[in-house]
UniProtKB/TrEMBL annotation:
Gene Ontology terms, MF aspect: kinase activity
Enzyme class, first EC level, given as a word: transferase
Keywords on record: Coiled coil, Kinase, Phosphoprotein, Transferase, Two-component regulatory system
Organism: Paracoccus saliphilus
Lineage: Bacteria, Pseudomonadati, Pseudomonadota, Alphaproteobacteria, Rhodobacterales
Histidine kinase domain mapped to chain residues: 92-303
Residues in coiled coil: 13-82
The protein's name in its UniProt record: histidine kinase
Presence of keyword Lipid biosynthesis: no
Length: 441
C-alpha cells in the first residue's frame, strides 16, 4: 500500500491508518517474540544451574562410592587373607595331629592281633572307637574348610564305582559287624565322572551315617542307572527321618533327637551337601519313620569298562608274603607301626628308611617289590622325589604308594600324573593291605 500525491486527502488518511495498524501489529509480534526468547533464556540459565548442582551431587556420590569400594576391597582382602591363614593353620595342624594318630592306629591294629583277655579286648575296642571319632572330626573340619574355600580345585576323572564299593566295604565292615548289621554292596561295573577324593568322602559320610542310625537290619549300597545318570544309593533299615527334620539334617551340628547316644558331631551330611553342590551332583532323600532312609546322589555315567582289581580278601595269602616293601618315613612312630603291620601281620619284608638318600643306599642293587613313601620328609625331601629317584636307580617303574596327611590338590594331581595311588592318614591297615595286594597281584 503506497501513498500517492494524487490521492485525495481522505484517501491518504485511510492509507496512513492502515499502514500504522500494520506497523503496530508487527511491533506487538516483535515484542512477543522478544519476551518468549527472554523467558527461554532465563529457563536455560536456571536449567544449567540445576544441572551443575546435580553434577556436583553426582560427583560427590561417586566419590563416596569409590571410597566405600576401596574400604570394601580392603575388608575383602583382609577376610581372604584371614581365610587363607586359617586354611594354612588347619593344614599344618592336621599334619602334626594326624601323624601321631596314624602311628597310634597302626599300633592299635597290631595290638588286636595279640592274645588278650576280655577286659583288654574291651579296652582296645574303646580305644579304637575313640580314635575313629577323633579322625572323623578332623576330616570333617578340614573338608568343610576346603569346601568353603573359593579356590578349591576339583579333579574330575573316571571313577569306577565297583572299586569304590570294595574300598568302602573293607573300611566299614568292622563297624557294621560290631553293631550286628548286614552291610551289602551291589556289584557294579558302572564308571562315573567325579572328583575321586570328594566322591569317596560323600559315600563315606552316607554309609557311616546309615550305620550309625541303624540298630537292626542292615545297609545296602548300590547304583541304579537312569539314562545318562547313575544314582549312587545308600539304603538303611534304621529309624527314619521325620519330614520336619529333612531340611535341617544337612546343616552343621544337626542330629536327630532319637540318636540314642550315637557318636558324632552332626557334620557328615553337611559335608555331603556342600560337596554335591560344588560338584553339581543332585542329591535326594526319601524316608519313612521306623522303616528306613534312602539317600541318592546323581552321577554322570561314562561309557567304557575298567580293569577289575581284586579285593584283598580275594587274594591268596602268598601275594604279599615274602615281598619286599621299602618304606620311606621320617617319623619314628610311623616307621615302627609300618614294621609291625607289614612284617608281622602281612608277612612282608619291611626295609624302613627315613629319606631319599637312605632309601637309595638301602635299595642297593636289588629293587624292592613296592615302595611305601610318606609325602612330607625332612627339609625339601618328598615321597614323590624318593619314588622318582628309586625308579631311576632301578631302571623300571617300581610300584609305589604315597601316604600323606595333607589334602592338597597339587599332591593328588602329581600322584595321578605318576600313576601312584595316594593314601590319606590315618592309615587303615585293611585299606593299606588292599592297595598292596592290588599293586602286586
Amino acid at each position: 500500500m503506497m501513498l500517492r500525491d494524487s490521492d485525495p486527502p481522505h484517501r491518504q488518511v485511510e492509507k496512513l491508518r492502515r499502514i500504522t495498524d500494520v506497523l503496530i501489529d508487527r511491533i506487538d509480534r516483535l515484542e512477543e517474540t522478544r519476551g518468549s526468547a527472554w523467558s527461554m533464556f532465563q529457563a536455560a540459565v536456571a536449567l544449567e544451574q540445576e544441572v551443575l548442582a546435580r553434577t556436583r551431587q553426582l560427583e560427590q556420590a561417586m566419590a563416596d562410592l569409590s571410597q566405600r569400594n576401596r574400604e570394601l576391597a580392603v575388608a575383602r582382602a583382609a577376610a581372604e587373607e584371614a581365610n587363607r591363614s586359617k586354611t594354612r593353620f588347619l593344614r599344618a595342624a592336621s599334619h602334626d595331629l594326624v601323624q601321631p594318630l596314624s602311628a597310634a592306629r597302626l599300633f592299635l591294629s597290631a595290638l588286636t592281633d595279640t592274645p588278650m583277655d576280655e577286659q583288654q579286648k574291651e579296652l582296645t575296642e574303646r580305644l579304637s572307637g575313640a580314635f575313629e571319632s577323633v579322625e572323623q572330626l578332623m576330616h570333617a573340619v578340614l573338608d568343610i574348610s576346603r569346601l568353603d574355600s573359593q579356590r578349591i580345585e576339583f579333579h574330575r576323572q573316571p571313577v569306577p564305582l565297583g572299586e569304590l564299593f570294595r574300598r568302602l566295604a573293607a573300611e566299614f565292615a568292622p563297624l557294621a559287624e560290631a553293631k550286628g548289621l548286614r552291610l551289602s554292596f551291589a556289584p557294579t561295573d558302572a564308571v562315573v565322572e567325579s572328583d575321586p577324593v570328594f566322591l569317596r568322602r560323600i559315600a563315606q559320610n552316607l554309609v557311616s551315617n546309615a550305620i550309625k542310625y541303624t540298630n537292626r537290619g542292615g545297609v545296602v549300597v548300590g547304583v541304579r542307572r537312569r539314562g545318562a545318570t547313575g544314582w549312587l544309593s545308600v539304603y538303611d533299615s534304621g529309624v527314619g527321618i521325620p519330614a520336619v527334620d529333612r531340611n535341617r539334617i544337612f546343616d552343621e551340628f544337626q542330629r536327630l533327637g532319637n540318636d540314642n547316644g550315637t557318636p558324632g558331631m552332626g557334620l557328615g551330611l553337611s559335608i555331603v551337601r556342600r560337596a554335591c553342590n560344588k560338584l553339581g551332583h543332585p542329591i535326594s532323600l526319601s524316608s519313612e519313620a521306623m522303616r528306613g532312609t534312602l539317600f541318592r546322589v546323581g552321577l554322570p555315567l561314562i561309557d567304557g569298562s575298567h580293569e577289575h582289581h581284586p579285593k584283598a580278601s580275594d587274594a591268596s595269602s602268598h601275594v604279599l608274603r615274602g615281598r619286599v616293601a621299602l618304606v620311606i618315613e621320617n617319623d619314628h612312630g610311623m616307621r615302627r607301626g609300618y614294621e609291625m603291620i607289614l612284617a608281622e601281620r602281612l608277612g612282608m619284608v619291611a626295609r624302613v628308611t627315613g629319606g631319599t638318600a637312605e632309601a637309595l643306599a638301602t635299595m642297593g642293587e636289588e629293587p624292592p617289590d613296592i615302595i611305601l613313601a610318606d609325602y612330607n620328609l625332612e627339609g625339601d625331601d618328598t615321597g614323590l622325589a624318593s619314588i622318582l629317584a628309586l625308579r631311576d636307580a632301578a631302571g623300571r617303574n617300581v610300584p609305589a604308594v604315597v601316604v600323606t596327611a595333607h589334602r592338597d590338590p597339587e599332591i593328588a594331581r602329581r600322584c595321578a600324573a605318576m600313576g601312584v595311588p595316594l593314601l590319606e592318614k590315618p592309615v587303615r591297615p585293611a585299606e593299606l593291605s588292599e592297595i598292596l595286594v592290588r599293586l602286586l597281584s
